[in-house]
Amino acid sequence: MRQTLDRESLIARERNLIGSLLLNFDGAPLPEDAASLKPEWICNEPLHVPIARALWWLAAAGRPRDALSVIEHVKRHEQLHPDDDVEKYLFGLFQSHTAFPSELQSTCRLLADEGKRRDMRTALMQAINEMGEHESYEQALAAALARIDGKANEGMNVGLLTAEDIAHRGLDFIDRAIGGLAMGMPTGFGSLDALLYGGLHSGELVTIAGAAGGGKTTAVTSILENLVSDGERVVLVVSREMGEEQIAVRHFASLGGGRVRNMMTGDMQQSDYDAVAAAVGRLSGMKLIYDLDSNTPAQVALKAAQVKRKYGRLDAIVVDHIGLMRSNQQHQRRHEAIADITWSLKTMARQMDTTVIAVAQCKRPDSTRADAVPKLTDMAESASIERDSDTVIGVLAHRDGDLKGYTEIHVLKARMGEIGMAVAKFRHSRIAEADLAEFEAARSMAASSLAVSKTERRGIR
After folding, report:
1. What is the CATH number of domain 183-453?
2. What pTM, to 2 d.p., does this model score?
3. Long-range CB contact pairs, 275-283, < 8 A, 24+
């Protein structure tokens, strides 16, 4: 059970903190632990909030935080009760306080925890009070979750970091990389992982895009099955496109090699029964959790938090797909809603320290374009998908012709990686890595065949 202090002990802690912050005459910034607090969280004594607001304002302005400056600011900008004697209180506090750095750190952590809880309680009450102001239950729920999610995000902010802080974190990361502890999650496609410097990385938004029927769902399914194949990683899949029966059949086909047509029509052969049995056995050992209900980023964040609490980790969140999601807020234009969705997903990745994989629809290339490979400019609904994504992967599956069975996986954008192509081949209802040299040879042969065909057609004319 959480240990709490009585009010008198909290007041004593706050007095000690304020007294320490008053010991500054050169305009130095607030200590890091104190800078992460809100003045309103230092509230167990009525005079503490206006005094704290004065201290924070003086620090932001680079001015000395002495008692006289604080008194002047409080008298000029705060409305005090007639019985409040800020001068007497401050000088008494200044003379009596004793500073213990370790206690100050624990005080800041305690006040931050209490303040965040208080803010969340307020947000919950506001959400309850606003439930009757919306036309539908869905709108009321979305507004409530957005308000709660906003407070939750505030509570997870890291705060300000100096260049020295960044340097130390960078050195720690390199040390982990040298020890093999900072590698990304392998996608199951070695050439793709090489382009992404080790695979998928936590804290990043990865968008996998393709035209309708272009193979992106098959690619995503293969990747997420590879991610959880170790039985340890936990992946949450938010599916807005398929129901549970379709999801099950897709996994049976992908993991067991069963034929989709036979499973959908019930015309099962012995090999299909064997495939389903094998797939069920593999699925039972995977920590793959599906969410078929959430349709806003705020709802996804709540489900993700539940999964992380239950399993103690959450390695990736897959959203299939962005075009079927709704924004946390009401927007008149769809591209504004998409921009809100992509930024929310990016924020979720960073704050939950997980990888968010978003599936996005691309416009079909017009007939005048020789190359059907997805491009960044093909994003169907908003440029924010490209802007907010740390990595964008374009997928093109060849369903006929000389390249039938091949899938091109293009890294179109990589904030920390390289632009390039990996190749996969469709085998047993899933894709697996293929040899790039073989694909290039097949593509060259296909191009030659096309050139001969065009020449023959011109000869006929």
Report:
1. 3.40.50.300
2. 0.67
3. 276/252, 279/251, 279/252, 279/253, 279/254, 279/255, 280/252, 280/256, 282/229, 282/255, 282/256, 283/251, 283/255
